[in-house]
Description:
By secondary structure, the protein is of the alpha/beta class. It has 2 domains: 207 residues, Spore Coat Polysaccharide Biosynthesis Protein SpsA, Chain A; 45 residues, no CATH class. The protein is 33% helix and 24% strand. The strands form 2 sheets. Strands 1, 2, 3, 4, 5, 6, 7, 8, 9 and 10 form a 10-stranded mixed β-sheet that branches. Helix 1 packs parallel to helix 2. The radius of gyration is 18 Å and the shape is globular. 42% of the residues are buried.
Amino acid sequence: MRSGLITIAAGRHAHLRRQQEGIAAxxxxxxxxIVVAMHAAEAQSYRTLxxxxxxxxxxxxxxxxxxxxxxxxxxxxxxxxxGAERLVFLDVDCIPSPTLLARYVEVATDDxxxxxxxxxxxxxxxHDFAVAAIPHPARPAPRDDExxxxxxxxxxxxxxxxxxxAAWRRVGGFSETxxxxxxxxxxxxQRARAAGLDLHWLGGADAYHQHxxxxxxxxxxxxxxxxxxxxxxxxxxWWPMEGWLRAFAERGLIRRxxxxxxxx
Length: 264
């Protein structure tokens, strides 16, 4: 089965370089490697960085806001056109463990989406990422040889996941009506569930998230979160990202109005 490894990027050149090094150290290499430049002007710099190891797709802009969903769909479309039968998505901030790709390919099934574990690295991690990385406290941490089926689709994340070509087509990819930060991956989890796919948490497909500054809550993405959250609520009947919304409200940035939220 041909595998396609897809990364979307905007900036983050150093992170992409370290990810490339991690891929090269893997026990299995991808048959197809796609990097999607969400800012078309950066495509050539990515081509220089990746060399012959990746095909870089330049995404042409449509207004403001990072087109995360559209970029993932474009990467998948290109990988499928090149014959990929297993699609592996890895966030540009993530360095794969040596067994990540092999494990994803080994357990891929048309009936599920698989998510590997992601550990968060400190600013200056030691050489042994597995020791330094801090697991996400709200997500399962299966053993290296374990697959945990029946996962909560609300916990699906796009940082690191795999899906077969047949299952991808059943879901229909990411909804491109979400623009900017937030909700597009939660929506994908719901779409996968609606398409009859299970969520599997997969041991042995570890990734290590490289450190970068973040704000908590992410106030710079407030407008995106309100817009995308309202769209999600209209589609699924409930608001995602509730922790962030409550934090925004506590800071006096938004208020509850009826079933929705309004910026103050």
